[in-house]
Amino acid sequence: MVRWRRLIGRLAAALVAVTAGSFVLAVPAHAKPASDVTPYVVGGTLAAQGEFPFMVRLSMGCGGALYSPRLVLTAAHCVGRTGTNTSITATLGVVDLQSSSRIQVRSNYVYRAPGYNGSGKDWALIRLATPVTTLPTLKIATSTAYDNGTFTVAGWGATREGGAQQRYLRKATVPFVSDATCNSYYGGQIIANEEICAGYASGGVDTCQGDSGGPMFRRDANNAWIQVGITSWGNGCARPNYPGVYTQVSTFASAIASAAASLGG
């Protein structure tokens, strides 16, 4: 894990997003090494076609979720600065990234969370050049009501620490871990109001490199999917006593909605 699974670690935060012109190199959240830029679901199973139709694969090696027909919610560490960006390709509508039925749309703008510096506030919106109206969006939690229980994570990231990203979407379930417990594992690095942890003390199941930016979600009171987290970072992948660390979406729901409105909804 280390701070970028996800991509790389908190110490490598400055390297998490490197921009060269319009090109963005994303460093994953689940690995501390600056060389690790691809997180995957470890200990999971293959997702069925259509099971999570809001899932998005981003060309820099991250995941995301369709927030609105023209916006993808992802992690700040996956993108460069706020501004025009036509370098990202979003792949949607399929579990197999090589499927002939995949939808692919280019980006035209990136909005990175104000104040993001590699620690906390790990969210961003990517605006698509054309709207995707044939797929459902994933609503986000606006309160902490669903920040507990068992969550689902999904992504095309590695199936083992240091492994390669995957062609097929994978999924897994992970239990909530309290801030106090998570901080005891991470030596006080967790930002309680901005991050939420999930995973097993025994390890074995986790997001990994290449899963960065993807959603952590669960069912709400109406049995609809609701996003509670964004895959952010961790120490290695699926290691015992090192749960995954996710951006706590409910904390930033208002800011995300405001940014979305400024980008056209």
TrEMBL record:
GO terms for biological process: proteolysis. It comes from the Bacteria. Keywords: Disulfide bond, Hydrolase, Protease, Serine protease, Signal. GO terms for molecular function: serine-type endopeptidase activity. Residues 1-31 form the signal peptide. InterPro entries: Peptidase_S1_PA (IPR009003), Peptidase_S1_PA_chymotrypsin (IPR043504), Peptidase_S1A (IPR001314), Trypsin_dom (IPR001254), TRYPSIN_HIS (IPR018114), TRYPSIN_SER (IPR033116). Residues 41-261 form the Peptidase S1 domain. This is Trypsin. It comes from Micromonospora citrea.
